[in-house]
Amino acid sequence: MSSIPQPLFEISGLHTGITKPENGRCLLQDVSFHIDQGETVAVVGESGCGKSTLALSIMGLLEAPLGIQSGRIRLQDRDLLQISKKEMKRVRGTEIAIVFQDPMSAFHPMIPLGAQLMECLKTGDRRVRISRCLDMLDRVGLPDPGKQMKSYSFELSGGMLQRVMIAMALLNGPKLLIADEPTTALDVTVQASILRLLKDIQQEFGMGMLFISHDLGVVSELADRIVVMRQGQVVEYGEASCLLDNPTHPYTRHLLEMVPVLGRSLPAKVLTYDQHVLQTEVVEAI
Ligand SMILES: Nc1ncnc2c1ncn2[C@@H]1O[C@H](COP(=O)(O)OP(=O)(O)OP(=O)(O)O)[C@@H](O)[C@H]1O
């Protein structure tokens, strides 16, 4: 008898909310979805629907008065809600890594970027760790990685710094990468090159990716499946192509209408994306 393969990552029946009894409020209600190895699942919804609360719930980084009320978050065969804080700290950054929206605030301005990257690789010979950081900076397309290791965050552009954050997230070979609005703070011409980079490295490294965005147009570029969230609840969930071609929930249709140029025609968006990439490469080459 063949057993059903286990997903890489699975959330089931997740409820997250304000835990104070006097003003208890549910911010995520019964959220469930899974991510298979090598797959990109996008969570999309407007501001305030609970996307960041979801990312923080997964990373075990919710701060009081927010807390998980019930549900399960599994990475392979482990329930992340049942492991110790110490073990969760190890999982974070090694097995699950996150790329945040604003690269400028993710780095310490007074510490060289190289030292901050090295800090993520806690073990191993110093020379091996330096070489690993240099390799990863090169892999994410940063010119002159040796120079960037000595630079401070304020010396790099937003796009370059986002590449450093992606390199940092990949250093320990995570099984799951969470990208929380990774292109929102960037210039439109740089956005497309960062999206292409995420797509490339996800294929190369074969990890699962949870891509969080308010923009269904951006999501259509790289998602295998899409979770549409509204007011803390999943209103639609399915294969990206089916959901984009035949949205069943009025809110998904509303999000689609907000995508400029795309409307409901994907090929037009793909064309727009390629034009952005071309434009970006021209800008970067100047
Ligand atoms: N510490 C907190 N205390 C009370 N309410 C909170 C707290 N953090 C978030 N919320 C509320 O939870 C809801 C979801 O917020 P969240 O930041 O997860 O949304 P989001 O979809 O990520 O929005 P955005 O795209 O603007 O970042 C919002 O109504 C927000 O006001």
UniProtKB/TrEMBL annotation:
It comes from the Bacteria. The keyword Magnesium does not apply. It is found in: Cell membrane. The keyword DNA-binding does not apply. InterPro entries: AAA+_ATPase, ABC_Ni/Peptide_Import, ABC_transporter-like_ATP-bd, ABC_transporter-like_CS, Oligopep_ABC_C, P-loop_NTPase. One of its GO terms (molecular function) is ATP binding. Keywords: ATP-binding, Cell inner membrane, Cell membrane, Membrane, Nucleotide-binding, Translocase, Transport. Pfam families: ABC_tran, oligo_HPY. It is a peripheral membrane protein. Gene3D superfamilies: P-loop containing nucleotide triphosphate hydrolases. Residues 9-256 form the ABC transporter domain. Belongs to the ABC transporter superfamily. This is ABC transporter ATP-binding protein. It comes from Paenibacillus baimaensis.
